[in-house]
Design brief:
The protein contains 15 helices and 18 strands. By secondary structure, it is of the alpha/beta class. The two termini are 33 Å apart. The structure holds flavin-adenine dinucleotide (FAD). Flavin-adenine dinucleotide (FAD) binds next to α1, α2, α5, β6 and α12.
Length: 533
């Protein structure tokens, strides 16, 4: 058993930013970060485009960034939260630079600014096309230099501990659910550990792996959302899954697909269909730089119309020098599979990319469960509404990590550890005999979600998806009850829960809004509402 004042689950931008702030404020207190993989294996590391932040006040303004965010969110953003993130983001980026992150600069010392879909101005600061890698590097270096932060790697958090584990009845309407820490499977010892904490922050990232192809790495299985749902906390707007329009298409690939950042289109890349036609002008006056949902649906429609599995991104009008100056990593990746961007077009197709909904939080990152904060992609703060504006998520994670920190500082001295929390009970379980039971169910889940709950939905597909998920859930619960735990089984269980929440949200939303497009309800409902499960 371990005890810590501050427990952080996740070592991406949200978890690390919060941990650094708390560690600086309380040099005599210990901060524990747990992560189920290597410390840097996070969605954060793969972010390419950059961070949307207002810098150039001559050409840009907070108002413009706020308006762009509200337009993308399609009526569901919380305007107060949008203002908070846009305005406070400037200070958070400055702090990140002080911690050592480097962003590309012009010769005169100003930031080089990129532009992405839905932005009215150039305002994306970046580090070539590996911005997330650079941010993760800087944060991890700062964290490693901090003596009072311990990172426990390869430790899979199974569940948050609440009154339920003490034998009390906890239901959705219980008003005072509290979090006392977590149970976690140490992947090095294969033992379940009990970690008691005065406060816990969930920063567990996204859930792209619920779909067959995704830009997210394998850690993105929605664990935090599933844990909070099991603990009877509030989850919001899960139906809004952003599909990135341009993941690199590689025949037969499942799982993580390589992203071709939107900034390539920002710099002039043009989408073309099978016949070479620049089709985006048929769909939106903003053409290739329309918001992602519009571009993804346009590509989906072109692929269905022409019977192809991808469209093309044409960068042949770039010189190698111009392209590699901003996108050296993409250039190398394309070249490694025989695509010379000066001569060949890049095959691209949409892939699951970002979860706009998640654990419902207030403006201080507090979840509906006491002593439990949530921050980063696993949370639903009200910033994104029905659709995330490109490059707003890294900014959101930093702003809310700070806000969780401000809130916890005020509370920590009045909090204590909970007594009599039982150890994990693994009695009556044994090693699962056949891994195929888990791998096959995962394939089925990803297939169902991609085919029935993808970019375009309708009622019959959602109904079918729900009945398939129901069966997968029953089989997996049976396996879970009788098996000793493995990360594969835990992830499958969480992914089925997340799939269920996405389908449930999509079923309740009888309209088409933002990222949720249902052909049975092509228009927007007059009732503007968040769906809370
Ligand atoms: C390819 C790609 C490109 C992107 N480009 C951009 C961009 O240009 N701009 C932008 O703003 N956003 C971008 N995003 C989105 C952005 O990167 C993410 O939203 C953000 O990094 C999420 O940070 P996070 O800290 O919330 O989670 P992550 O960085 O994903 O970290 C999650 C952490 O939680 C841990 N974890 C999860 N479950 C458990 C568990 N059960 N037990 C223990 N640990 C657990 C993981 O191991 C990991 O350490 C991109 C995303 C991808 C995938």
């Amino acid at each position: 058993m371990k005890e810590t004042d501050f427990l952080v689950i996740g070592s991406g931008i949200a978890g690390l930013t919060y941990a650094l702030k708390v560690a600086n404020k309380f040099p005599d207190k210990k901060i524990l970060i747990m992560t189920k993989a290597a410390a840097d294996e996070t969605n954060t590391k793969y972010a390419q485009g950059g961070v949307a932040v207002v810098n150039d006040l001559e050409n840009d303004s907070f108002e413009k960034h706020i308006d762009d965010t509200l337009i993308a969110g399609d009526g569901l953003c919380n305007k107060a939260v949008v203002e908070i993130v846009v305005k406070e983001g400037v200070d958070r980026v400055r702090e990140l630079i002080e911690w050592g992150a480097r962003f590309d600069k012009e010769k005169d010392g100003d930031f080089k600014l990129g532009k992405e879909g839905g932005h009215s101005e150039f305002r994306i600061i970046h580090h070539k096309d590996i911005t997330g890698w650079e941010m993760e590097r800087a944060l991890l270096e700062a964290v490693n230099a901090q003596e009072n932060i311990e990172i426990i790697k390869h430790c899979f958090v199974v569940d948050i501990i609440t009154q339920h584990h003490l034998g009390y009845l906890v239901i959705k309407s219980s008003p005072d659910i509290e979090c006392y820490g977590v149970y976690a499977l140490n992947l090095m010892t294969n033992r379940i550990e009990k970690i008691l904490a005065k406060t816990t922050l969930l920063a567990t990232g996204g859930n792209g792996q619920v779909y067959r192809t995704t830009t997210n790495p394998s850690i993105a299985t929605g664990d935090g959302v599933a844990m909070v749902y099991r603990a009877k906390g509030r989850i919001e707007n899960m139906e809004f899954i952003q599909f990135h329009p341009t993941a690199l298409y590689e025949p037969g690939l499942r799982g993580q697909a390589f992203l071709i950042t939107e900034a390539v289109r920002g710099d002039g890349g043009i989408l073309r269909n099978k016949d070479g036609e620049a089709f985006m002008e048929k769909y939106d006056s903003r053409k290739d730089l329309a918001p992602r949902d519009i571009v993804a649906r346009a590509i989906d429609s072109e692929m269905k119309r022409t019977g192809t599995e991808h469209v093309w991104l044409d960068c042949r009008h770039f010189t190698k020098e111009k392209f590699t100056e901003h996108f050296p990593n993409i250039y190398e990746k394309c070249l490694s599979i025989g695509i010379d961007i000066e001569k060949n077009m890049i095959p691209v197709a949409p892939a699951a990319h970002y979860s706009c909904g998640g654990i419902k939080t207030d403006e201080w990152g507090r979840s509906s469960i006491r002593q439990l904060y949530a921050c980063g992609e696993c949370s639903s703060t009200g910033l994104h509404g029905a659709n995330r504006l490109a490059s707003n998520s890294l900014l959101e994670a930093m702003v809310f990590a700070h806000r969780c920190f401000v809130d916890v500082v005020e509370k920590i001295n009045s909090l204590s550890y909970r007594d009599h929390v039982p150890d994990w009970n693994a009695q009556g379980t044994s090693e699962p005999k056949e891994m195929i039971l888990i791998t096959q169910s995962l394939k089925e889940l990803q297939q169902v979600m991609s085919d029935y709950v993808g970019i375009v939905r309708n009622d019959i597909r959602l109904e079918r998806a729900m009945s398939r998920l129901d069966l997968l859930w029953k089989e997996t619960e049976q396996l879970y009850q009788g098996s000793s735990l493995s990360p594969q089984l835990l992830e499958l269980r969480n992914q089925i829960t997340v799939g269920y929440l996405i389908v449930k949200g999509a079923t309740f939303r009888r309209e088409s809004r933002g990222l949720h497009y249902n052909t049975d309800y092509p228009g927007k409902s007059e009732l503007v509402q968040n769906i809370v499960l």
